[in-house]
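Worked problem 6 (solution included).
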Amino acid sequence: MSLTDPSKRLEAIPPYMFAELEKKIADKRAAGIDVISLGIGDPDHPTYPHVVKAMQEAVADRGNQNYPSNRGREEFRRAFSDFYRDRFGVGIDPETEVIPAIGAKECIYNLCFAFLDPGDVALASDPGYPVYTGGPILAGAEAVLLPLKESLGFAPDLEAIDARTAERARLLFLNYPNNPSGAIVPDGFFEQVVDFARENEILVVHDNAYSETTYDGYVAPSFLATPGAKEVGVEVFSLSKGYNMTGWRVGAILGNPDAISTYWRLKTNVDSGLFEAIQLAAVAALDGPSQPLEEMNAIYARRRDLVVDTLRAIGVDVKSPKGTIYVWAPVPKGFTSTSFCEKVLEEAAVVISPGSMYGRSGEGYFRISLTTPDERLSEALERMREHLA
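Solution. The predicted structure is:
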């Protein structure tokens, strides 16, 4: 064994998929090929000006330059409490039911270390965000995949989970509006989740990353608005997508106060809190006007329609999503997810994400991100039309 050999737990995790995607893009561009990437969901518009201004002022304030509290500033916690009351109709105690997170990814990983032991199970949506499976593995536990069935509105069949697995499970990861499928939560599903979690003593973790990015009049709910949800669950809210703040790494975990306390206990041992200037910028985002979000959603809706119309024109039977910044579509007959995406890259110099990157149940699909500027998106779609029609 070499002194630099990784741990067995790290070896069990495949390379992070977006790192692999970025490498493919870099290799093509190094060869002089004009590649257009529709693969990664990183907003192309800047953070809203009032948020940037708040950050600039907070950074210059000497009082914000020391270690922050892991509990978060009072203004931060109260802003989230007020936002959840006004936006979702959910009461959140700012003293015990919310603390900052350094983005959703960090929060989900830390939840795994806070609640999972070897031999435990985390139930994870498939397809889904890779952190739902990587986190449990790094914590020494097991991730059991729950296929998201299109026939059930891309919801897992909770009744299909065997009793032994349910008995071992300690966490259940869910995400609506859903990445990568763009699906919205089916009517009555959150109520089923609460009953299932209560019956099996499982902590529900709802990754609420896309609630502010919706279309066609749809308003996404919070899991915590479901009767009984706070007894069995927490919700991770991120400002990354809706507020164009992916690089800022800011969000919060809200919900069950005992779970929040356990999570906080872990965080005090693994990080030094969230930079206070970023907390104040988050306050400005949550307290700010809704107009920038509405304008951003109108841009995404226009791009969504362009993508859907183009795919249908080349024979792809795709449904138009009501949420997220992605279009999820079936690959044409005769292709796997990977072979189709490789064909698009080689022939059209356009990067799209194979559904299999998000789990076994993603096989047979591909994902297109809506975060490419309009002119480049139009060019990418025209290339696809030219080479695939």
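Discussion: The longest strand covers residues 121-126.
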